[in-house]
Amino acid sequence: MKSKDKKTVGYTENTKYRCLEDHQQVNSMSIVSPLNLDYCGIEQCEPGHTFGPYARENYVVHIIMKGCGVLQMGKKEFRMSAGEAFIIYPGQEEAVYQADGTEPWEYMWVGFHGHVAKKIVRFMGFTEEYPLIRVQDTELLRKEIEKMLEARALTFVNMLKRSSALYALISMMIEENPDEGEFENSCNTAYVNEAVEIMMQSYSKKLKISDIATTIGISRNYLTDLFKHEFDMSPQSFLMNFRMEKAAQELVETDESIQNVGINVGYPDPLAFSKAFKQKYGMSPSAYRTSSVELVQCDIKGEYTGWYHL
């Protein structure tokens, strides 16, 4: 008989490397929640250690505590040292970073996503043209990363602890940016917020993006442009993500039939619901409901190879 599907979160620790990864596999919150931790870590790199190119689905911020190194972004090269931070954006395939050969950096990193993630990155002061900022107190930031690593056990209380530390770290970094808040005073932000509110209140009903746009007084094309700017996705994709994540929550937390779960999130056609759910989670609703989660602990960097299905 086939085993149940299994999802894993990895934790690796040795004298030079600590890393919590694949946490997005077990988040009960995701793209439609404000902010979610995907992974974090601390490493004293070996001389010349190189990472990339590698395309991610989330934002990854590295904070340099000691030493120096180089970030290569296409034809651009940035040499960095202690007290600086750099960011890798979702889908940014060309990024390669390398520790110095004589003074290799020690850095920490945090990967996250969520519907305020793009705004948070702007508030920190990062831009795609210049992906570096200065940070004042790396030790305070390190304490928050260590809190995330210590709260690695897959419990609800630890999820709250990790989220708290993530918000604390980001708020400290935003406070150091004097332009923080400049993006808030915008009618466009109000339009997006209103559209999101309509989706979150009415996701179980038949919703047309054109009707949402009409309700808030703008065209569908303009609403689509606003969502792509704010979330890097269309309103339709945002709504589908929200519905699927609500479905995932119901599958785990209730005994509702799979057909009723689909109806509850706006998918009266069971086949359409199953197809959409599998597209997002890589497994059927029934497999997701019976899937288990494990924390895999390792002591060698690279030993943990990621979440898997049996």
Q: What's the SSE pattern?
A: EEEEEEEEEEHEHHHHHHHHHE
Q: Which strand order spans the largest sheet, edge to edge or round the barrel? A: 11-8-5-10-3-2-1-12
Global mean pLDDT: 86
Task: Calculate the terminal CA-CA distance, rounded to whole Å.
Answer: 11 Å
Summarize the structure.
The protein is of the alpha+beta class.
Could you walk me through the main structural features you see in this protein, from its secondary elements to its overall organization?
The chain has helices at residues 117-124, 138-150, 156-175, 187-202, 209-216, 220-231, 235-253, 258-264, 270-281, 285-290; strands at 6-13, 17-21, 36-44, 50-51, 59-66, 68-73, 76-81, 84-88, 95-99, 106-113, 132-134, 292-298. The protein is α+β, with helices and mostly antiparallel strands. The strands form two sheets. Strands 11-8-5-10-3-2-1-12 form an eight-stranded mixed β-sheet, covered by helices on one side. The chain has a four-stranded antiparallel β-sheet with strand order 4-9-6-7, with no helix packed on it. The mean pLDDT is 86.
